[in-house]
Each structure stands twice: as C-alpha cells, then as structure tokens.
Design a protein that fits this description.
heterodimer; A: 143 residues; four-stranded parallel sheet; 16% strand; B: alpha/beta; FAD/NAD(P)-binding domain; five-stranded parallel sheet; 17 helices; 34 strands; 25% strand
Chain lengths: 143, 650
C-alpha cells in the first residue's frame, strides 16, 4: 500500500441533480455551512441522466472520488429518474469493484432541497474517506 | 472545432464572493482559455450597469456565448439570459457558473476556493461553447376547464373561471351539487344559514352560460398533457328529465321503497325516487336505481304512472362523453373518519352517539327532526350532551396523526346551537387544545364558554358505553386533576376529516400524487399550495387538506387564478431543452421508451422519436441509452464529458 501523503488533497467530481441535491447544496451555501473544497459540482437535470460513462470518464481523468447525488427515492422531480439511477449506478459500483477500484471511491447519496446540513456532511465524510484511501491510480489514464 | 467567441463575467457580489474568491484572478485565468475573447470582473453583475456590460460586450465583441460566474442560477439565470437577448444573442447561449452558494460561501481557504471557482467557471464555459440557440416550444391550448367535484370549492372555482369567459365543465358524482356544505345547518363564526349563503352560488352555476353541469357523472379517464387534455366523463342513466320535472313530490308519495337517506347521514329514510334537498341543483327528482324495485314497469312503475308531467323514462342508459380541455381543477372534498373505527366511543353501536354531520342535520330546519335537537333513539330532548373533540385525529398510534383543523370550531358551534335549542340543557366539551385561529374564531369560542355556559373539560375520554338508558362517558379533567363521569343523553363526536373516497380514485386516474394521509399532494407546501406536480392540474378545497370554508373558497379562487394565467395566452411556452435522437446511432432497442417517466418517446419506423411537448428534459433516456444515441439539447453527453475534463483541471 502506498503511504498516504499528509498534504494529499483529493479531487472529487460531484454530479448533483438540479432539483434536489444542487438545491440542497445551495441551501448549505445560504446557511454558510463549511465543508472541504475538494468536490467540484457538475449540475445534471436528474440523477437518472448520469451515464456510467461519466463516472468512468471522471476516474480515467484522475478523479480520486466520484459522488452522484439525487432526490430521495419516491421524491424524484421527474417521478422515476432516480430509481433508474439507483439501479444503474449500483451495477456501476459492482463493475468498478470488479476492475479493482476501491469500493468507496464511488458513492451515491440522496439529498433533498431542504437538507443543506446533510449535503455538507455528505461531502465532508466523502473527502475524509477518500483522503484515507489516497490518490486513485487504478483507472487513471497513463499519458 | 473552432471555439465560439465567449465572454466571461465574474461577479464580486460585493464581498459575498470577493471576500473568499480572488475574482480578478479567476477572470485573468479564464481570459487565457480557448475562445474567451472577453474576461471581466465587476462588483454587482446583476445590477443595471452589470447587465449593460453584458449587453454591450455581446454587441461590441460579436460574442456567440456568455458565461456569468456568480450566484446560483436559481436567482439570475433569467436576468442574464434576458440581457443576452437584448444584446442580440439567443438566451440559451448564456450559462451561469455558481461560485457563491457552492464555493465562496462554503469554503475558507482563499487559494483553494479560487482554484475551485476557476474550475467551476471553466466547466460552464466548455458547456456554453457547445450550446445551440433554442426557442421555446409553442403549445396550443384548449380554452375549456374541467372542474371535478361540485362542493363549495368546485362551485367557486367554476364561477371564477366562467366569469372570465372560459368554458367550464363541472362534474359531480351526486345528483346535486353543494357537497357537504349543503348538509350544514349554520356556519361558524357568524352562524350564517349554510344553505342560504350557498344556494345563490348553486343557482348561479346552473344558470351560467359558460358552465356545463354534469351531475351523477364521474371522470373515467384523462389523457394528454397541459393545455391539451382529453377527458372521458361517464354519466349514470338519468331516469327523471330535469327539464320536465316539476318537483311536485307525487312520485315519492307512491314509491314503495324506503332506504336510509344518505344526505341526512342515515337519520331518516327516503324513497327510491327522491330529491336530495329542497335546494338541489339541478332542481329535479332523481331515481336511485340501486334502491328501485325494478325499472321494468311490470314490477313496479308506480312513479311513472303518478308523474303528470311525464318526466320519468325507464329506458334511459348511461352515457359517455369525451371532451377536450386545457386544465383541470380537482375539488373532490372530504369524508369524515369512519365512525365504526371509533368503537371506544361507542360509535356505530349506539344510536345516540352521533357524528358532526348528523348533529348538523338535527339542527337543520330541513333535517330529520325539523330543526329540533332530539335523541334518534326515543325522540326525546337530550338534557345532557357530551361533545368529544379529536375523535380520530391527533392520534398517530391508532387513528390519524394530523389535526383536522375545524373540529374545535364546529364543536363550539354545535354546543352553542344546542344551548340555543335547549336552553335548560347542559353541554360538555372534552378537548385537548382549542384551535381557533381564524377571524372572529377565538371570540366565538369564548362566547360559547362564557355566554352559553358550555363546560369545557381539558382531557380525553377513555370510554363511552350504555348504562340504564343513558350513555355513560368516562373522561378526565386534567386541569383539576379529577376523573369525570357523565351520564349523557347524547354524545357527539368531532371526527377527523379524511380525503373522500372519490379523491383516491380521481388521483389514480389523473396520476397525481397524494401525501402520507391520502390528501392530494401540492407542488410545494408553502409556495405552491394549489398546484399538483403535474402541469395543468390544480387542487382546491378539503381534498388537499383539512380546512374551513373561507380557506376553501380562497383556494378555489387561487386555483381558478392559476388556470386563468395558464390559458391566458394563445400558446404555452414549453422549455426547449428537450431530448433529441441521433437517428444514425439509434437501433430501436426501446430502452429509452421504457425509461421515460412522461411516455414521451415512441418508436416510429424502428427509430426512437421524441414528443417535444411531453418531454420534460430530465435526461433519463440519455443515461439509459447504450449508444449515447439520445441527448438532451444543451445538456449533451459531450458537454458533460467536457465539463468533467474542466473539473479535473484539463
């Protein structure tokens, strides 16, 4: 195992659905809750629109962690998009494990527009967990 | 591909962003990016000078694309898209990068926050550079409204809509409109006669040239989408012609069948052929085919013989009518919580344990006892009456968890009316709290306690049972700390309001959501209380939640207002960020067809085709397609991949 450097700052890509998780993230901002800056958000319309290729692409480009966050099951703004996300990304998780990527580098969360504090907690926990895993090397493209 | 001429504007937002993010550095860095020909920072981009800077930059630099790096798009996306349009650029070429709520406000380290702001903005630039110009999709509308439910909510909505010239179809399950309000005796806090204030509105509905009233009718199915629905309405066989019936009562006099009268909540009987109320609208008798001996004249036929006007025809059949409508208002009302479930209060077992509506019918001059408060069992005047509030509500373990909102007020009303009818009687009210928030409500309750001498006992009732011809009520008065035993002549329960049975059925047909208690779900509990999540379908009245008459009327007018706004233009503007198929890549596997929550995709000649009016642009199809053959305009997979590169520092 490569020893983890103390100054390792993970790079995380966070796909946030517009109606719930991105709004929850905005609420965390309005509430001035603080969390680590390692996760850069990409707003998608629905967690159901997240293609497995996005996750692969992120890891290939060197992401240390990938987060996908959507509306709570049952509350999808588009009624059932997040059900597709849940099932599809569960399979992506299995595939990532199969190719040897550490299990915890990819995470799904459900954050509603009212859960600013939860969003800050989700990001904070994820950054802490990825720091412990160290830099991602398995899927990062070699130039 | 040659990058579009892009303008980047980074906002300080006073100190909100600039205190944490080095906005000048962000602008300078991005000024070096491919295609960025203008990169500026300004203290308040959303201000007039800020917007003018965008407009002028678009004109002076012939910009194809604009990115504003500022607060959340929920605040000013429209502002800057409008500004872009003013500069001559299509609004959809403008993108927002959120570096405030999702960056400056949540981080402290200046270097890290600035680096993140650069990546967020670069990500927006990459996306904007692949955007295409889009125009809102025009959807034609039908200027006709379907109102489901003819109680006070449906009546008010129908009148408000019809008075603006819109066509209204009002569908009601019962033979008369008026709903539960028609069953009431008086209404709190004014003690207005309920039928007196309701009847004029009912008559207005019947006479209004723009309202088509369909009673004994139910909605069978609804298809289509906002502005363009198609509804199938099923009407029962109408055996008595409302145009001919003279309301003479000759038919009911000879009818041999007597059944419990549901309008009097079972306190009296009615004939199979009957008029629900004297004030029924449509003003006609009606034949209940379930109670009738047989529509075959050989079996009975007495009413048709007795009818001098010749209004009765046994050969009528149910009919189905299909109508085009632009919007729907659901006002299907409430039922009371089933008395049978309140066995501990003797409900359903003792004749003299009544529910709130039954007590109303006793008080009503047109009711079972001609307005005298009498015990159903022996028709004697009750001298001691116990009212029990919160029967079935505020009880998460056994019954409904919620507060039914109106029971404190109508119980006070009932106790007051009882004392007016029986001045030497004694009334007791068992309560947990008194909720009397409306105008004049608190004063009303105080008058009930002080002027009418009603005894209010703060405590719950544990058991109600019959003993020696009286109804014994065991309760507690927590303020004095003592148990209370009352041998009452009558007990009246304030049962919880529940969404009516029809509400559940209509919600399924329209595919609109209901909340945890079965009430219709509103789009937002605070800010959008009369809209369902489905565009074009609006909610009004107790079907959406327990409420009193003024709130119901308010909601009905609000729903009508929303409909009027929706149908006010010739065309509806539908968001153009919809899905689009790349036919060369599509293999017709239909996975997207199954995935679409709006059933907006279908297969035509072996390729997927998107109905742009139904498509809401969620992108579930795009995430599902194995070949990336379907994309949402301006949120394409290529764009997302470019954004991922930007986020990763590439």
């Amino acid at each position: 195992m490569t020893p983890v450097q103390d100054d390792f700052e993970p790079k995380i890509v966070a796909f946030l659905c517009k109606w719930c998780s991105s709004a929850g993230s905005d609420l965390a901002g309005v509430s001035r809750l603080q969390y680590p800056p390692n996760a850069v958000p990409i707003q998608v319309m629905c967690s159901g629109s997240v293609s497995p290729l996005y996750i692969m692409s992120a890891f290939k480009k060197g992401a240390d962690g990938v987060l996908v966050s959507g509306c709570h099951p049952g509350d999808c703004h588009y009624m059932k998009g997040n059900y597709f996300a849940r099932r599809r990304l569960f399979l992506v998780q299995k595939l990532l494990n199969f190719v040897g990527l550490e299990k915890d580098r990819f995470r799904m969360s459900w954050v509603s527009a009212a859960e600013g504090a939860k969003f800050a907690e989700v990001v904070g926990d994820f950054v802490r967990d990825i720091k412990a895993l160290g830099p991602q090397r398995r899927l990062k493209a070699r130039r | 591909m040659s990058a579009k001429r892009t303008g980047v504007f980074v906002c300080h937002c006073g100190n909100n962003i600039a205190a944490t993010v080095d906005v000048k550095k962000v602008a300078a860095e991005l000024g070096k990016d491919d295609g960025v020909v203008v990169a500026r920072d300004y203290v308040y981009m959303c201000s007039d000078p800020g917007q003018n800077a965008v407009i002028n930059a678009v004109k002076d630099n012939k910009l194809d694309s604009v990115v504003i790096s500022c607060c959340s798009p929920t605040l000013h996306e429209k502002t800057f898209r409008d500004a872009s349009e003013q500069g001559g650029l299509n609004g959809f070429q403008c993108e927002i990068a959120n570096i405030r709520e999702q960056c400056a406000w949540v981080h402290r380290d200046r270097d890290q926050a600035t680096e993140k702001a650069i990546r967020i903005t670069r990500s927006a630039i990459r996306r904007a550079q692949r955007n295409v110009a889009l125009e809102p999709i025009g959807v034609p509308v039908t200027r006709r409204v379907l109102v489901i439910g003819g109680g006070i909510a449906g009546i008010q909505a129908a009148l408000d809509l019809a008075n603006t010239g819109l066509e209204v179809v009002l569908v009601e399950k019962q033979p008369t409109i008026g709903g539960h309000m028609l069953q009431l005796s008086e209404t709190f806090p004014t003690l207005d006669c309920s039928q007196c204030i309701l009847s004029p509105k009912m008559v207005e509905v019947s006479k209004h040239p723009k309202i088509t009233l369909m009673v004994q009718s139910e909605v069978e199915s609804v298809s289509g989408f906002v502005g363009n629905f198609k509804a199938r309405i099923k009407t029962k066989a109408i055996y008595v012609d409302p145009e001919v019936c003279k309301i003479c009562d000759d038919c009911a006099n000879v009818c041999p069948v007597a059944v419990p009268n549901q309008y009097d909540v079972g306190l009296t009987n009615r004939r199979a052929i009957h008029i629900p109320f004297a004030q029924a609208i449509p003003a006609t008798y009606t034949l209940d085919e379930n109670a009738c001996l047989g529509l075959n004249p050989v079996v009975c036929g007495k009413c048709a013989d007795a009818c001098e006007a010749g209004a009765i025809n046994y050969d009528k059949r149910p009919t189905v009518k299909e109508i085009d409508i632009g919007a729907i208002v659901v006002a299907t009302g409430f039922d009371l919580y089933a008395k049978e479930k309140l066995g501990e209060y003797g409900a359903g077992r003792y004749e003299d344990v009544l529910d709130g509506l039954q007590f109303e019918r006793l008080c009503s001059a047109s009711g079972a006892t001609g307005g005298h408060v009498l015990r159903p069992s022996d028709h004697k005047e009750p001298k001691e009456v116990v009212f029990i509030q919160c029967a079935g509500s505020r009880d998460p373990q056994t019954h409904c968890a919620y507060c039914s909102k109106i029971c404190c007020m109508y119980t006070a009303k009932h106790a007051t009316l009882y004392k007016h009818h029986v001045p030497d009687g004694q009334a007791y009210v068992f309560y947990i709290d008194i909720r009397s928030g409306g105008k004049g409500y608190e004063e009303f309750v105080q008058r009930t306690m002080e002027d009418d001498g009603v005894v209010y006992l703060r405590g719950r009732v544990s058991k109600v049972y019959e003993k020696g011809g009286k109804i014994r009520v065991l309760g507690v008065d927590t303020l004095s700390g003592r148990n209370v035993e009352i041998d009452a002549d009558m007990v009246v329960l304030a049962q919880a309001m529940q969404p009516s049975k029809g509400t559940a059925e209509v919600a399924k047909i329209l595919k609109i959501g209901r909340d945890k208690d079965g009430f219709l779900a509103e789009a937002h509990p605070k800010l959008r209380p009369v809209e369902s999540v489905t565009a074009g379908i609006f909610l009004a009245g107790t079907a959406q939640g327990p409420k009193d008459i003024p709130e119901t009327v308010t909601q009905a007018s609000a729903a009508a207002g929303k409909v009027i706004a929706l149908l006010s233009k010739d065309e509806l503007a539908h968001s153009p960020t919809v899905a689009k198929v790349k036919y060369s890549l599509c293999t017709g596997c239909e996975m997207c067809v199954d995935a679409c929550p709006y059933e907006a995709i279908r297969l035509v000649d072996g390729k997927a085709v998107v109905n742009e009016v139904l498509c809401e642009g969620c992108g579930t199809c795009s995430g599902t397609c194995l070949r990336a053959a379907i994309d949402v305009k301006n949120v394409t997979q290529m764009q997302i991949h470019d954004m991922i590169s930007a986020v990763m520092g590439g």
